[in-house]
Every structure is written in C-alpha cells, then in structure tokens.
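Table S2 (text version). Query chain:
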Amino acid sequence: MLIKICILIILINFINVCKSFYSVTTNEFNVTDLSDYYNGGPSDDYYATGTPPNVYCQRTFFVLVEPLTTSALPKQMISGENYANGSSNSKVFKYYLNVNSVGITNYDIIIQDFNSINYTIPQFFKIDCVLPPSTIITSVPNNQLYKYPVKGLYYTFVKLENIEKQFKSSYMDFVYQRYTSGFSSNSLTGGVSKFLVAKFSIPYTSVLSNNDIIVNTTYSLVSSKFNDYILKPYFNSSSSLLNNIDTFGINKYPNDCTNLLYGQCVFLINLKMKSSNYFLACNGSGYGSPQLISGNELNGTYYLSIAPRFGASATNSIGSFENGVYIPTIASNFPLSYIPQATPSIIGTNFTLQTQNGRTVQFGGQSNNSFAYYGDLFISNKKAGINRPNTKAPSCYPYLGGTKDKLLFSLTLPLSPYSRTVSSYISISYTFINFVGTTFNLVTQLTPISSDSDSTQPVLENFEIFENPSNPHELIIRMTISDQGSGVRSIEISNAFSSSQTYTYRGDPSDLVDGNIFNGVYQFSIPKYNSGGNIYATITDNAFNTFYFQTYSAYNGIKRIEPFPSPLLTLSDIGNVYFEKNDLDLSNNAVDNILYIQLKNTTIKNLSFSLVPLLNIEDKSPNTFVSTLDYFFDHKNYLSEWNETLQSYQIKFSLPARLPTGVFSYYIDPIENLNSATLFSMFGVNSELRVTSNDCDIMGPIVSSFQFIPSSTVTIPASPTQSTMVGFNFLIEDHLNGINSVYITITSNLDIVGHEFKFENISGNPLQYSVDATFPIHSYDKPQTYTITKFKTIDAQGYTAEYPNLVKVNPLFINGITTISLSTVYEVGGTYIQDASPPLLSSWSVSKTTVQDLDNILIFDFTIEDLESGVSTVNNPSVIIVCDNSLQIEGKSEIISTVQNSNNPYLNNSITYRAKITVPFLFGYPNGIGLGLYGVYDNHRNLNGFDAKKLSLLGYQFFVDAPYGQSNSIITSLIYDNGFVIIEGLKFGINPIIKLVNVPSGNTSLKTLPTPYLNKTIIYVDVIDFRTTLSLDFKISVSNNGADFSNDFTITLPPIPTQTPSDTPSDTPSPTPSDTPSPTPSPTPSPTPTPTPTQTPLPTNTPSPCKGNPICGGETQGKCSKSGCVCILPYFGDDCSSKVIIDIKPTVNETQPQVTIPYEQINTKAKVSSLVSVYSLREIDFNGKIKNEYLFGEWDYEVLSSNEFKYSTEIVNKNDGSSITNIVAVIKKFETSTDIVFANEKITMLPSTMKYNINISNYHFIDKLHSLNLVMYTAISTSQTEDVCSASSFGDSSSQLSSQYIKIQINDVSLYGEFIKRAIVDGQIIGVSNKKLDEELSLNTGNNAHTFIAIEIPNYKDSIELDPNFSVLLESNSPADNSICSSNKSGLSKTQLIGIIIGSVLFAVVIAIGVTFLVFRNSTSLRIKARSFKLKPFK
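Corresponding structure-token output:
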C-alpha cells in the first residue's frame, strides 16, 4: 500500500522524489499521515511555550484516507475538517491538536463513513512536546555597537548556541540592565531557531556611554533564561561634542511650522568641528539623526527634517553627550505643533447604473468642498507592479467641473453583469491625505443585472513556478483557472519575502496566455530577488466569489501549491560578505566596486541577490500604501551573477561622487535583515564599505530665491491686442554636483492642468541657474491666483529634490510653498468679457464600437464650442479610456481646425480636435471600455468634463466592446537576430507549434516549442535545426492548438557563415506577409514590454597599455590607469602627446552642415584648414553592397544660438516614392570643457570642439536585411607645398571607453573626430560600428588628406540619433611611417617634419576645396557635386 501511495503522489505532482509517510491499513481504509507534506516540513518543529505544569503545544495534522471497499466511504473525521477531495472517493482531513503536558502523547483518530459508522485508528498521531533549554546560551560574533544604523535601527546578530527547534512566536522583548530607560524593542521576524536578529532603537545615552551595554533577552511565553551578552559603545564619555564645537549656526525653514500645506519643517545646521569623533543626534521621537549634505565632518552642513506632529507641541533638541547624559548643546526647545489640513468633505455620492450591450456601467459622482492641494490623485488599481496598488491619474482626470476649492468628479467603470459590489476596487486617495492617515472609498452594493447568478468560486486547475531561462533574475508563475459562471476578474499574488517587504502582483485577463476568462492559462513574472517565504494568492471572479490559497495548500483534488524553486535562505546560510574595495575616495569621481556574497553551501548557484545602496536623503517614510510607490523613491538596485572561480555571487555596482564621508549603508534582498548593520555584527569590517569625500553633495538643487514676473499682482490687459507675460523667476543653486534639469508646473485656483516648463540637460551643469517660468495673459483671461503645483530638480549626479513628494527634500523649503503665489486682477474701469458657463461638446465621434486583436486603434474626433470667452488653447483636452480594473489610458488631442469669433479674431468660437489611442491587447476584456473627455477649458478657465454618463445623456457613444476575438494565433512581426527568429504576436498558447515551409520545395517542418521560448507575446526560434532541411527562404506560422495555424510570414535567413563572425552587428532578414486570408499584420506594439532572450552588451573598448616616452607624456601631461592614459587638459590622445588647439575660430556653412577650421602654423606660417561635412546616406544590402545612395542637397538653416546651428533636409525614398525621410543635424561648438551625456555615456567635450547631433526619421527599406550608412567627410589641407607629410589613422579611442576615432594629420596639426559606438534607435540604446571608407575613396597627397567615415546604422522602424564630435590638435610627433609626403627640398628628414592633427570628422582647407571637388566630380564612383560655400563665423 505504501508503494501505491508513492505512485499516487508522483502522478499528482506531490513531490519529486517518493518519500516514506507513516501509514496504517485496516479492512476498510488506508490511512496516511501527510502532515509534513502539507505543512512544508516537520509538524513538530517548535518548542512548547509556558512554564510547567502549564505548558502548551499545538500541531496541525493532515490525513489521507483511501477507501478499500465501496461499502465504507470516508465522510468525515471526528473533530477534524474536510480539507481536500482526492480521486476514488479518497479524502484529506485537517486536524488540530493541543497538548498541555511535556513528553510524547498519542492520539486516536475516528473516521466516519456515509452510514454514520465510526472507525477508530488507535494512536495514529504522536506529539512530542519539548520545552526549550532552561538556559539559552547567546553569543555575539561582533559586539561593537555600530555607529551607522540602517534607517534609524540598530541590528545585532545573536547566535543561540543550544537551540534545536524554533520558537512558535516571533516576538521577543529586549531589556538591557544598565539603564532604566531600556531598549525600544522591535518585533523579531521569521522563526527564531539557531539565531536571532535583535533589531532595536537605543537611547543615545547607551550609544555614547563609557560603560558596556549588558543586554538581556527575555521571551514572555517561555520560562527559559537567556544569558547576557555585551555590546561595546561606539564612543566613550570623553567624546564631548560641546568641547569639540568650534562654531555652529542653525536655520529653520519655515520660521513658523505650525500650519503647513506641505508637511515639512527643515533645519540646516552648520558645524565647524575640532575633531570628527562625534555623534550628532536629535532626541525627538522618530526624528532620526541630522544628515550631512555638504562639506565634511569637520566643516559641513547637516539637514534635519521634523515629521508632522498633530494636536500638541513637542520640545526637541539636538546635542551631544557628557558622561552618559544628554546635553542639548546645539539647538534646544524648538516647539513644533502641526495643525493638520482638513480632509476633503464629501458633499454627496451618486451611483447610477446603465446598460450598454448587456453590460453594466457604474457612475460615481462626488463633490469635494474646501479642496486644498493634496498632491496627486491615486486611484485603486488591480493591475500594478511591486507594492503598487494605486495608479497616478492624469491631472485632468476625473474632474467634470468646478474650481480647485470645489471640484465635481466622477469615477466610471465598466462592470460585469454579475457584479455585486464595487467597494474593493474604487478607492481614491491623495498624496498628503494618506500622509495624514486618511483615505476615503467609494463603496456601494449592486444588484447584478444578469439573470444568471454565480455563487461558485473559481477553480485552480494547475499551478507552476519555474525559472525564466531567458532571464536569470526572474521566476515565472503560471496558473490554469476555470470559472464557468462569471469568469475570472482578477488575480492577486503576494510574497512576503521579509517582515517589511512584500512583493505583490495584481493580474487580470490581459495576463492570459492561453484560453479565456472561463478556462484559461495566466502567466506572471516576478523578480527572483523578491521571492522567498510563502505565496499568498487570491482569485476573484466577476461576481466577486473568491478562492484563497497559499504555499503548500491543497487544490484541484489533493495537489499542493509548490514552493519557490530557489531555496529559502537565512543569515545562518551566509558564509561571508565582503567588498573588492572596502575604502573608496569619492571626492571627485564615481567609483565602481564589487560586492561578494559567499554561501556556506557553494552548490547553490541559481539565486538572485539585489544590492540596494541607500544613496538619497529620505525625508520621511510614512507608513501608508501610497508612499511605497516608485513615484516617491529613487532606489537603484544592482543584481548578482555567479562567479565560478570564486564560487561566490558577485554584484557589480557604482557609487556616485561626493557621498558623505563615513560607512555606507545598504541592504541585500531577498534574505531577511541582510543589511550593512547586521553584516557588521556578523563579519566586522570586511562587510563595511567606507567612503571619503573632501566635500559632499547629496541634496538635489534647491531654490535659493524667487521673483515675481512682473510683480505679485498683475493687471490683466484690457485691449484684445495686448498680452502680458506673468510667472516666476527662480534662482536655483546646487552645492557641488551642478544642475542638470528642472521641471515646474504652475496651476491656479481655476486651472488644475496649468502650465508645464521643462529645462533639461542644462549645458555645463552650472552650480547656479536662473529659470523663467512665464506665460502670457490676455484680455479674455479671468482673475486668478497662480501657485506652484510641482517642482522637481535633478543634479548632475542624479540626486533629486521634488515637490510634492512624501520622502524627498522639497526644493522650495527655503522660501516656503505658500509664499510663491501670484494673482491677476482686472484693470479698474476696464471692459472685459464675462463668462460663467463652461464650454460645450458640440460633436463627438468614435471610429469603432469594438476593439479586438489587431483592430485596436481608436480615433476620436470632437468639437468644443464656447461663444463667450472662446475655447482655450493653453492645454488641449484629453480622451481617457478606462477598463474594469480602473486602469486609464490617456490620449492627448491635437487641433484639427478652428472657427474664429467674428467680432474678436483672437478668440475661437469652436475648435475641432482629434485624439488617437492604441488599445493594448486584451485591455478591457471582457467587460468593455468606458470613454471620457476631460480637461475642457474656455479662456475664462471654466472647466468641463464628460464622463461616460454625460456622453450617454448627450446621445454620444460612451462605451467600446472588447471581446476576446479570434482564438487562432496571430503574428504581428518577425525578425532574425543572432541565430534566432523572433516572432511577435498574440495568442501563442503554452507550447506553440511552429510550422516552417520551404519556399522553393514546399517541404514542411513542425517544431513544438517548450516553455523557455515563450513570453506571452514573443517566441524565440533557434533556426539551426532547420538549416539542414530547408533552404534559406521559408514561411513561418504558429498554432496554439496543433490544428489551426496563424497568418504566415516569409523570411530569408543569412547564409551559414564560413568563418568566425566579426563584431559587426548581424543584419536582419525581411519578412514578407503572404497573401493568405489571415489577418494582415500591422506594427501594433505589444501590450506590455517583453524582454529579448539575451541582452547584447553595449560595445566597450578593450583597455590598452599606456603609451608614450615618457609614459603618457610625463606627469604634467597625463597619468597611467588600467584603461590607458588619462590626459591632463589641454593634452590629448592615447599617449597624451597631442594638444588641443583652443584659440581657433571655426566657420559654419549656411547651406549645408559643414564646418571649416582655419589654423596658422607658428613656425612656418603655413595656413592649415580642415573641414567636416555630412555627405550622403546609403542603403546597404546583406552583402555590403550599395543598393541606394542619397547625396544631400539643399538644407534649411537655422541659428539656434551663437554657438549652435540647425540644418534640416529630407530625401524621397527610392523604394517608395510616397515615403519621406527627414534628417536633422545640429552643430554645436563648446568654448569650455563640458561633460555631456549621450546614450547613457558620459562624453567630455574639450574646448573649441564641435559636436554633431544627427537625427534620422523612419526609412522605408527594400528588405529588413538591409541597413544604412551615414557617410561623413573629413579633410585637412595646408598651403605649404614642400617638406610636408600627411597621414590618417582610425581605431578605438583611449579617451572614451566606447568610441572610435579618426585622425587625419598634416605635419604637426591633426583633425580628430570621435564616433561613439552607441546610437539611440527607436528609443533604445544599441551598439553601432563605424567604418573607414578610404579603400574606395582614396585621394590623399602630401599637403592634402581626407577621409570618409560610414556610421553603420542597423535596420530600424521609427528613428535613430547619432552624436559624433570633432576637435583640432597640435601634435608633438610627425605623421606615421605610412604617411604620404611631398618633396623635401629643405633637406629635412621625414621624422623632422612637424605634423598637424585636427580632431574632427570632416575638414579641408578652403583653398584646396575647389581642386578636391573638381577631381571628385569626375569620379563616377563618388558622385560628389561641387557646392557653393557661404561661411558664417562663430561669435
């Protein structure tokens, strides 16, 4: 019988290996104890609690009962509960037992059949109730109390030396004996067995005391005694801060913190110290310690933000410690009493039901009174990412009218006819309402419209967890669910992988990979580093019947939910944690480093660890669900990889420059309490990451002052022909990193959408930057008060300051948000338009009533009318569609036509708009999509909005059906990449079958793809298997059921390589849809991004040895590093022997993107000139042959600034005359050394260098195997005719890790150009290569040299952006041996000639241009035509 049970368990996927279970066989039943199986481990693994004789043990048992006859079928277990039903009338019963005595106790079980006959199995259960040791031996590997707590908490790793089992409860109390104030204890988490992590707050008298801290741990539920352990204080009593202070100052912002719209009271504390041996602290509860934001520990500024306190004053102080006594030496007795803002009062609620196509649409209307600004609106959402139950709504949604202090809004959702309630998914909250702790919901009970009721919960048919083979950091959860009544509505999966961290995924029908809501397969991916512990899941149908389950739960008979495939580790499994470099100097630059994690069991190689460095100032961490949004945090995580040599995990990471001096805090997921403080107590200083900075800067740019433009009160002009610019000027400052970007939104009491201003990638990253956020007001405007709604700054290191935000520094804290307010008023006696009514919707049309599959583009045409003040053109209205899980998609409209006011041409009586929305696959399935129009304003800022209800009342379409569509697979696109054919599309199922048909022969091959090749909407097919049986041309189609195949695409594979492939990116074959009745594919984006099977790394140059004699030009010119020479400006080159020529004046051509750079040699007075130009665009086939070439002709020219020029042109595609490609080139000169960023690569622009930024729009290729070459031309020439040599070179750059250079040289002058090996293609950063074309375009002489460079552009869809740069260098060496020389009548040897380098891609002497181009014009292979030159100098 035991063998039978093992076979049964294997068949139903209980366990991978058959194990022995205790079993008893009677005449009627076979009874098996499956407790360990359904408990996930031994069921008696806990110590008893209590003190003898009052002890307590509880166990949960699971019993499988199999009938052996048909006359005695198990019905129930007396005192047990029916847990699961198996096959052949078998049952699993769940049984709870409580024991009140120490030792082994045996229990009988009683099984009752359907004839009410009881059968007793004697002494079937056994409980061994064991008391813990009377004395528990504790030890601390490192008892030095850590100066650097993590988020205000101290962690100590405490070993329990003589513990064999776990304690049932996870809460323990900590008391230290020396002082009466004691530790502030925190709950322990996880089972306490071999160790515990004491996590607590300690009074600062203990931290800084001379005496040892004797810690005693007590656990109130057991009588065991824990022996004491000792913590050593960080400082002793002689560490006096008072005597250490040289000078100090303190500033408070704002002066009055009692009434804040934004809950933040900031102190900036300036300290000058005699020694760094001090610890600065605040005695306010939960306030934490001041944070060093600039300077260093001897002379710096500290930041402290006091959290809100409601209802009473609080006396706080900041100070030091004298002999264990706290002394408020810096700031004392600053009262803080916050008056909380009133929450929005709900005047009324109104829920109505309306039926469209058999579905129910629910409307909820509310009016908010006294609506102060509470930040962004968040709406509950059942489809979100990590800890993100809410979605931030667009600024205009869901408001139907009113002003900011009294807004009417409506939430509209399509509902299933089976719906009985909306309370679980209509919930709204605002940023600062949740900060106060208030949230309000729209709750209602509905009567189902459907005549068919559904009271049956969904059925989980199958559950799988497996590793994603295309991403080592992901796990895939796949569920098969059936619900024959109302269908599945939502799935929620939670995984508490630590006490304070929970990963939550909320899925819906859009996660279907096979089937439909009545019987379908759902697939989700979760980060492996967020996995561990138990899974808790909820499946809900459209009638709100719910099925709950968790890890080890029984389902679908007696299957169980399997745990994560990765082992669940604890701190006791960690062997060591250490860094490649423990000490980093971040004074000037960011530094790369590696963290190593060594497990005691080195055979575990499939884990994923995530390192999260705590970089930012986190102002406060409110315990609200809104605050967990990524919207508030900037945490960056770095992922691990396995190092086979070291048998360890390694995490490569980088720390930005100018972090504060001290020990750096971090934590590592997914192991509980694995952070820098705990690791210090385990491994000591090896786990420490110590950083130093001469001067730190971790705070984003701050507004130091502001001015009104033109004043705080502005008169609205009365004349319709006049306007006045109003707004604010902000002076923004950053301590050290420099200002990168600024984002501002200004709204008013009448305008909730407002004006947005963006100042991005500010040139030079200045430490001080002034911005004007202004806009015009006209006679038709209404008086209103303008305030700041959003303000965000970013510095050059990525640190941000942001308002509104729950946790970040407010960039406006110095001035206060309430002071920045500007009002407009009417001119006394002036005549103005008066308009109190909002604009109207006079027409509304929607292109479709149904969306499905690829027929998914909605076009909205509508007309807004206002005959009084006119329709506003400040912001265009937004069309917003919403589905039943409250997700919204916004479509911004564009103006199609206007109708002017006949009496006032400055006003528009009506405007016709168009909005376009591409609906993602299965968005709105099955309950449809509700429509709405929001943000409709007239010039008097009267607001109107049209939800589904208002649209319906106007007789307009307010609803779009979203059925499942066809069941067959659909292919939308197909490309070849690096040995794989990548098929994108829909409805591929679980194990799709790929059909390949040989085009010449018609031979067919079928291949069933296993799970690893599938990710919802993408399939990866390894084509190696088919090369032997098929030619290079074949058709591909997909089936999800083995019978019905999708539309097919034809693809041509590249030939099998006969030699080792080069580093050149692979070309892409061109798929061609066949003329089949299948749906025509269109370039519709997938509903969710899907990762490629492999991520091709961006190209970087191989580090080269340092060159030169002396090395790198000597100490004054450069220094040697592991990546090559690092030159000291103005020196340059791979050996730092070249020198940037700064005093030159390049000229630009006004008819085409050309730059000419003149230079006069000092010794010979010879005139040298170089030229850079954008020459042509070529279409290249797979074999590298030119299929089409476009020589650039006339360009549109625009002066952007004195140093920046824009050129625009277009070409008519030779493959398709209706297709136009636009090319835009921007030339910019840099006067000073400047760091810029392109494609995530930092590039240093030297003085007097030129940068080309080239954008190319979509190009219609003949074949998807084809690519483009953008050809640039560089030339250099000298007036010297004798004793002159020229040369050119091309290769990897030593100054940039991922770029190539071209250098053409005449004597001692060079033209030098750098081409980054990256481009932005279709919005993504990819690697590109560059090719020198001299072999086919060679025409060099001794005093004239030129080079053509082809930037190789891969096949793309929409756009590409390139960014080469150029400079001119003075050389210390003559041209290389491969140079071309003129006659040397002077008798000088070639090595005595001086060479010239000009560091740019296209240069030529003006004198030589005519000769060069005349020669070229006769070359049919080059097809270059002479052009006129109009040169404009840089100013």
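Notes on Table S2: The mean pLDDT is 76. DSSP finds nine helices and 105 strands in the chain.
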